[in-house]
Amino acid sequence: MTASAAAPAVPEGEAANPIDRLTPEQLDAIARELDAIREQVRADLGERDAAYIRRVVDVQRVLEASARILLIVTRSRGSAAAATALLTVAKILENMEIGHNVMHGQWDWMRDPRIHSSTWEWDAVSTAQSWKHAHNYQHHTYTNVVGKDRDLGYSAIRVHPDQPWHPVYLLQPVYAVALAFIFEWAIAIYDMELDAVGRGTKSAAEARGEVRAFARKAGRQFAKDYVLFPALSGRAARRTLLANLTANTARSIWTHTIVFMGHLPEGAETFTERQLEDESRGAWYVRQLLGSCNLDGSRLFHLMSGHLSFQVEHHLFPDLPSNRYPQIAGRVRAVCERHGLPYESGRLGRQYRSVAKKVLRFALP
Amino acid sequence: MHVFAEHRRRARGRLWDAANLLTTPLLPDDFLGLVNPLWSRRQPAGRVVAVRRETADSATITIRPGAGWREHRAGQHVTVGVEVDGVRHQRSYSLTSPPRSADGCIAITVKAVRDGVVSSHLVHRTRPGALLFLGAATGDFVLPEQLPGRLLFITAGSGVTPVMGILRTLARADTLGDVAVVHIDRDPGGVIFAGELRQLAGQRRLTLHEHHTARLGRPSAAEIVERVGDWRERETWACGPGELLDGLEAHFSASGERARLRTERFHVRAAVATTTTGTAATGGSITFTRSGVTVDADGATTLLAAGEAAGALLPSGCRAGVCRTCIGPLRAGVVRDLRSGAVSGEPGDVVQTCISVAVGPVEIEL
Fewest Cβ atoms closer than 10 Å to its Cβ: which of A104, A228, B91, B298? Predict the structure, then answer.
């Protein structure tokens, strides 16, 4: 299933990478301009931002509690369906706008011990600890570097000509879709990076500890959704179980979709490990910029995507509060225009087709 | 009976485990706090019921604590958390109310210090209804179980606050025996609790000696104790600025009475403006409390680099301030963010060691 991508010495298409056109002075200028945006937002953070995240957290908890209670008490199929929808929304909010962003440290500035990256645990089978390492460190540091960014196709999907072809990729259109349904579990296991033990880059003891933590966490998550709440529903146990399964699966499909749209559509650049050598702050910024794609949509859409629809802004400033991304998008776009850099953005449908095309194309040699 | 109690206890435990599982990965407490923040036991809080002005720059804040509050002892202090501009700040204040008050409320008395974000917020901008976060009451500046016959309290400025808690507790129980109070302040008008202290003195329930520095200058330790003739026969509690306490400790030691003196020091951190960029990063000694490593670093070496060079095994990731793998709680001192130049040194600050340098001595829990 897995194939590690070895980067050839001179990958094709590298010459066309806009990052190579920029002089060190231009890169420094870009870094200064983007740093200025960051500092300005940082200095302006205050009560309204704090009120925003608290409101989202409160709304999410009320939604989840109402959905759970409704599922236990209701007899009608209509309200059970409504409760399932509510639970799905609550679970998506919890992972996307709250969990992902809190664990990035976006709200650490509030110094609220209950909304803090060091204490947050999310409603997912992966532990916060393991996910933070895989996501905040590996993915956000090595974004779109072929062979380094494990999130790029998750080793299982070939999305770039530099990844050597293998006959198993003929099946990738099928398993890429299947992955969406089990995404929550798949990333939990993938993020533990157990193959690193074989390569000798991770100690067996460390891996054992992570697996144990995962088993404990996943066990509790499983027991909650598939044993305890169904049991509390008495005769409606089967229905509650199905509702919870539906909510978890729908959330998996949604997060899978948003995550795949962030770095894979046509227009998102990939990079080689050579690019990481002595990478300046400006070059890091530009790599984040070129490797990310935004999604256009309504305010509700942005909220439900955890503002990952502002993937560009998120990758430039992963620890700025998500509610600020829409406000700075115009200025980031202006920086891009000034320096002749592309700023990729498109509607979900278009980006989806673009990614699908890639998955189909690279299934073949 | 015993068997039933044991069964009940176990059943309650199982019920609690089940409730925990229902709300996993959160706790039932998180949902209780959603309905009413005062119900939370994980994060004790209290509601302000009254703010009474004591002097021009001090006020007593009466708080109705929620479910998480544990009763205090007179003389103890509590960490109070307030939110100013969306940011949580924590400071310790002496409890000035006696424990187990009839209305279930507690009180802190706060003096607004210059540039004090929290103290001026509490004194000037806090209204009834406001929510305050509360830590546990702590401190050993308390009376022993067995009350000594003769007591002496030496206080200066807002150092009177923990002593007031003790005096009120004694007065309420009618156990104010032979009590002498020496209070030092700038002028008569600035004395917190002046009315109450002078009234107690007027009723001959205690003897009060006031020393006003605007008129008499700063008194020496000897001058202070000589105001109470039999000070050598008294158990003494003193609270005030560090210099005063240092002087008293030296004097009591020299007189062979050190065992009779208990002191309470207010730890006032240097006010840190979180956006200033002027002061040069000076470096300093960095202590990693969990690793047990202390190392000196200059103003250009990050906490992470310094710690690793000294052999501490520290969490690290991107080393560029992106991933926050390296963060640790700052226990003491001030650090500077190399990217923005911003300094931080508030209790409860969590810092990224890969982009922070020490400004003076620093302790970090890693």
Answer: B298
User: Taking the alpha carbons of A303, A306, A307, A308 in that order, is the dihedral positive or negative?
Assistant: negative
Let me know the angle formed at the C-alpha of A297 by A296 and A303, rounded to the nearest 5 degrees: 115
Q: Is the pLDDT of residue B277 over 80?
A: no
Considering only CA atoms, which of B125, B54, B133, B56 is closest in space to residue B89? B133
Does B199 contact A at CB distance below 8 Å? no
Q: Where would I find the beta strands (DSSP E) of chain A?
A: 294-296, 345-347
The angle subtended at Cα B346 by Cα B343 and Cα B349, nearest 5°, is: 85
ipTM value: 0.86
pLDDT band of B223, cuts 50, 70, 90: very high
Rounded CA-CA distance B244/B234 in Å is 19
pLDDT in tens, B188-203: 999 999 999 999 999 9
List, as ranges, residues 306-345 from B with C-beta within 8 Å of A. 317-318, 320, 322-325, 327, 329, 339-340, 342
Cβ proximity of A150 and A134 under 8 Å: yes
Nearest alpha carbon to residue A254 among A122, A150, A352 = A352
What spatial distance separates the first Cα and last Cα of chain B, rounded to whole Å? Answer: 49
Over the stretch B321-342, which tens digit does the pLDDT of each residue have?
A: 888 889 999 999 999 988 888 8
Q: What is the pLDDT of residues B60-93, one digit of tens each?
A: 999 999 998 999 999 999 999 999 999 999 889 9
- Residue B359 CA, chain-centre distance (Å), reads 23
Residue-wise pLDDT tens digits, A205-257: 999 999 999 999 999 999 999 999 999 999 999 999 999 999 999 999 999 99
B277-316 burial, b if ≥16 CB within 10 A, otherwise e? Answer: eeeebebbebbbeebebebebeeebbbbbbbbebebebeb
3-state secondary structure of A202: coil
Report the alpha-carbon distance of residue B38 to residue A67 in Å, rounded.
Answer: 25
0.90 cut: is pTM over it? no
| Residues on chain B touching A136 (C-beta within 8 angstroms) | 317, 322-325
Beta bridge partners of B151: B179, B235
